[in-house]
Design brief:
It is built from 7 helices and 4 strands, in the order αααααβαβββα. The chain is an alpha+beta fold. It has a 4-stranded mixed beta sheet. The longest helix has 15 residues.
């Protein structure tokens, strides 16, 4: 499936509430869904493979899963391109120098040819430290987790 076709369908779902509601509507018959999807996809000019995929979803009453299909495909394509998503949560916003240093350190975990896409969020609830999720790895170095662990140890009966 051409990625641009799926990006166009994803954009249409975000922009057109009627289309998004149509995909989730359980009351329509499969034949109605298929006819409407055929018309929409023809107007969009998508490839035969993309059209067949969505018609198969319509036949099997799975158009409601379109968002999941699009997200899964985007994730697969990112992996094919060597993109690695990374989410970092800190208690306070990081300045430019700290962000650059963190990105350099995290890029050390990547294999040759991979590209890091880092997203930084703040959550004062973690008190201090950071929580890093890179690819399928998760590292919690927050003060909140450490405090909870020590509190649990203190409360354990002797």
């Amino acid at each position: 499936m051409p990625e641009k076709d799926l990006t166009a369908v994803s954009g249409m779902i975000k922009e057109n509430k009627d289309f998004a509601n149509f995909l989730r509507n359980p009351l329509l018959k499969a034949t109605e869904r298929k006819a409407v999807m055929t018309e929409i996809l023809k107007k969009m000019g998508v490839s035969n493979l993309t059209e067949n995929t969505f018609l198969c979803l319509a036949d099997n009453r799975r158009l409601k899963n379109t968002d999941s299909v699009l997200k899964a495909f985007a994730k697969i394509m990112a992996a094919v391109r060597g993109e690695v998503n990374c989410e970092v949560v800190t208690a306070k916003p990081l300045d430019g120098a700290a962000q650059k240093e963190l990105k350099t350190a995290l890029e050390g975990f990547l294999q040759k040819g991979q590209v890091l896409h880092m997203q930084i969020k703040t959550d004062p609830g973690i008190i201090g430290g950071m929580v890093v999720s890179i690819g399928d790895k998760y590292l919690d170095m927050s003060m909140k987790t450490k405090i909870n662990a020590y509190t649990g140890l203190i409360k354990m009966p002797v």
